[in-house]
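Holo prediction — pantoate.
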Amino acid sequence: MKIFQHKKTIMAYLERYTDKNIGLVPTMGALHDGHLSLVEQSVVENDLTVVSIFINPTQFDNNNDLEKYPKTFENDIAKLKSVSEHLIVFSPTTEEMYAKNITSQKFQFDGLESEMEGKHRLGHFDGVGTIVKRFFEIIKPDNAYFGEKDYQQLQIIKTLVKKLNIPVNIVGCPIKREENGLAMSSRNERLPKEIRHKAAVIYKTLKKAKEMFGTKSANEIKEWVNVYFDENPDFKLEYFEIANANTLKSIKQKTQNTKYRAFIAVYADDIRLIDNIALN
Ligand code: PAF
């Protein structure tokens, strides 16, 4: 395994392999089986796989969340080695990625950035766009892998590469879940054991919404979810939306031949959890 901290050295190293296919798995570390499944897919589909580990400060709208974000570098490396000894890890410092200017570029992603996560985490997607674009410029991957847990992020990155003509294929990968259905997330590590167990309710709600989608209106389903969480003292619902899977605009009425998804964000104390499900 090769570990690089500097842009120049990883770029010089990758220059030797211009005839090889490169897969990139961007992460913020605190790796779990969800990340590892992306790495495994990249290893199968590419000659070389680069995993970036970088906690990107510009995508956090909340300092507390940034400070508490788990940092488990040694453990991450051990997990990556268990997938393959031949991975290339890029783990730069904040200074390496931002020099003295820790700010993000402003993007427009055809309105995708104003929905859900965009409304609740101001500037988040400018931060994601800034860092992912930089990683693409440094690594120049053929394929880049992103989990569907962050479905809005995945749609935004697809739009970013299209708008900026970045020659990379964006691969969306299915959500990995814990045994109780909770979507795998680095933040799950911060949940007290009992709450982690009870957090099964998030996926249960999504599955119930999917079941109701056949017979109930979007408003009726939203109403049901709101009441359900009002009666649950362990979790605070931030939003539940039923949206067009491409535009991410919430819907009032279904139309034929359109794909829909349900999206949810909840707080367990100060820990924010998101999830989503395809409805049709
Ligand atoms: O999904 C993440 O972990 C981050 O948003 C990403 C894509 C690594 C950018 O920092």
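READOUT: The first strand starts at residue 2 and ends at 4.
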